[in-house]
């Protein structure tokens, strides 16, 4: 189920977070936030760079994404193909979700279901950890690729 985060109010909140952490809202950073706000699924830095149509170079795109990720405004995903993908962590959306990825065509489906939060607590307690979170991606063959 796709979720759209292209809400202007959310982008204002994200800009406020940038300002609140004494970070300048540069044109590339703002354009990346706006672009990711329109995307339904995580996209690569290369695609972000291409969609920004020359308004920033690839190095600037990577640096901006890294900074936005460090501020928890953007989340990085690894879908097992050595390509980092990025998604906006939106204020009003349920930020935590998982993905189902087709091994052939790389189609991405968002999965809202998750484990019982008590599981993280049990794992943390058993091993003496704190602030445990998880990232989980599912891989398989989509129905289109099965029939191809």
Question: What are the SSEs and their pairings?
Answer:
Layout: H1 8-20, H2 27-38, E1 43-44, H3 45-51, H4 58-70, E2 74-78, E3 84-88, E4 98-102, E5 108-111, H5 117-127, E6 137-140, H6 143-147
Parallel strand pairs: 4-6
Antiparallel strand pairs: 1-3, 2-3, 4-5
Helix pairs in contact: 3-4
Portion of residues within helices: 40-55%
Unreliable sequence segments: 1-6
Counted beta strands: 6
Helix count, DSSP H or I runs of 4 or more residues: 6
At CATH's second level, what is the architecture of the largest domain? Orthogonal Bundle
- Structural class call reads alpha+beta
Q: Over all CA atoms, what is the radius of gyration? A: 17 Å
Could you spell the SSE succession in H and E letters?
Answer: HHEHHEEEEHEH
Can you tell me the CATH topology of the largest domain?
Arc Repressor Mutant, subunit A
Strand content: 15-25%
Strand order of the largest sheet: 1-3-2
Report how far apart the termini are: 23 Å
**How many domain modules?**
2
The multimeric state of the shown protein is: single chain
Features of the shown structure:
3-stranded antiparallel sheet; Arc Repressor Mutant, subunit A; 2 domains; 41% helix; 17% strand; 6 helices; disordered N terminus; alpha+beta; 148 residues; 3-stranded mixed sheet; Dna Ligase, domain 1
